[in-house]
Amino acid sequence: MPDVLGFYDAPDDVAEAVKRLRGRGFTDLETYTPAPFAEVDDAVIERPSRVRWFTLIGGLTGVVTGYAMTIWMANDWKIMLGGKPFSSIPPYTIIAFELTILFGGLMTLLGLLVFGRLPRTTIDAAYSARFSAEEFGVCVRCRERDVVEVEALMRSHHAKEVILVGA
Amino acid sequence: MTPPPAQSVAAMIRPTPRPPDSKVNRDLLGVMTGASLGYWALLLVTGGFIALAGGIWIYQVYRGLGIAGYTHPVFWGAYIVTFVFWVGIAHAGTLISAILFLFRAKWRNAINRSAEAMTVFAVLTAAQFLGIHVGRIWKSYFILPYPNQRGLWVNFKSPLLWDTFAISTYATISIVFLYVGLIPDLAIARDRAVGWRKLLYSILSLGWQGTSSQWKSHNRSVLHLSGLATPLVLSVHSVVSWDFAVSIVPGWHATIFAPYFVAGAIFSGFAMVLTMMIPVRRIYGLEGYITAYHFENMARFLLVTSIIVAYAYCAEFFMSWYSGVESEQTAFYRRAFGPYWISTWTMILCNGVFPQLLWFKKLRTSVPFLFVLSVLINVGMWFERYVIIITGLSSEYNPATWGIYTPSWYELGIVAGSFAFFAHLFLIFLKIFPVVAIAEVKEIAIHQRSHGQAEGH
Fold it and tell me: What's the burial of B416, exposed, middle or buried (CB within 10 Å: 0-12/13-18/19+)?
């Protein structure tokens, strides 16, 4: 199936074009933008990113690890200090806090890699260095007979150029 | 609109022409190319100082810590002073990147990358001082909780151990933060680089193409990292301050220490960003990206944090007098009028008095003035830590045990080497990574272009 690639200059046009294309049933599409634009990204993917679950799990793992490690170690080699409890929670909170941040941050990075599908060794055929300048791209995979319609839709939303990728 | 015939699409099948590069790319990637003679000279000079400091350090390992100026009762000297100083410097980057991100202060994007890089380099510089100060470097792993034959564990009630966790977490998270921010910019560089740079950027950019799923995850990650880094940055210098405040040394044992240290850290960090970025902006012609507006905002931060720091100085003196505790009163009297009075008054003038000039808009917007002031603040903040640590230790409770510490030339050599190390890493960073966050600058530029509205810089 051919890939139709449209070039744009403004994020609003891209967002509108994506909405129209998706409305017409062309859901197998990808956008390439030089910077994050919420209107474009939300038009392509409606649900919020699931990275937040990674952060949450990482943070919870961190806080549990922090308390578990300190309390276990204090009780593994007991040091009696004036009849006080072996584990003293207030100072351990600092360790638990730091590990919450550490694990949460590392899991966030992992979430970025998983949901951003990174790292990848190949670059899409539709990708071009124009998108890392200041242009926007919308790439739609459609049936041959729909190419004309897709092109018309793209142009009606101010695509300045529409090409077939690697056809 | 009537759709054009199918042939027109077919006719358009042709190789993509050479991309019309954007001005933002050219300007900001241009910093990375063509090192001048001055650049190489600076690299050589800083490298020389690093070699000198390295030599001194090897000699210190060979001879022992005796070559440092430690004398009874002062066994925390210039190394710890410099450690605290660099940890403080490391605070500006995360503040600018994380806290200002959460507050949606758009002006941060001209300086956030360089500030994040400085954060990483400052933490790396600071971390070395722990090893240097410990002396027996081959035993420094004792600080980690590792299983060992003796069945012993580290003491989690010790502030020094909190420090280990705080500093290593901070180093890790600031590297992650810097790297995540760099990925889209590395892809921009990848698309335009040749040779070894192409390979390097291809690997580091992880195949980034700016698709929606990538940006969406990226935005969310940056948001969460900011949310995590904000309490982290406040905790790190609080923990460093507890190294002192949790002890019972007069002049250290104060509840004001955590906020006082955090404010001071942000203050010194902003000063260091100004010290580094003013010459970089001038040399590489980045006046269009880092404008007087950015500098003025940073000057306001300097002013606010300077007031907090000055307030803390006053509060410390007031509380020591008001407490009625003789040892506290003596400690603070000696701080201002004792053997270290020069350090104390340098600190008060540089951190509390001179920055008040920033109340004048003319001076806030004067770049040469800001540069001079930022250097003075750096000096003042180093002396602040010197005053706290050295005066505290030199005159504790019993006058019979008072003593005077003077840093030895060996210590000063290593301290000088740390500045060179920081500058050296930053110089290398300038030539390998984009020093301004290109994608973020574009985001605002494109918004302004397509909406014709002025929303900050």
Answer: middle
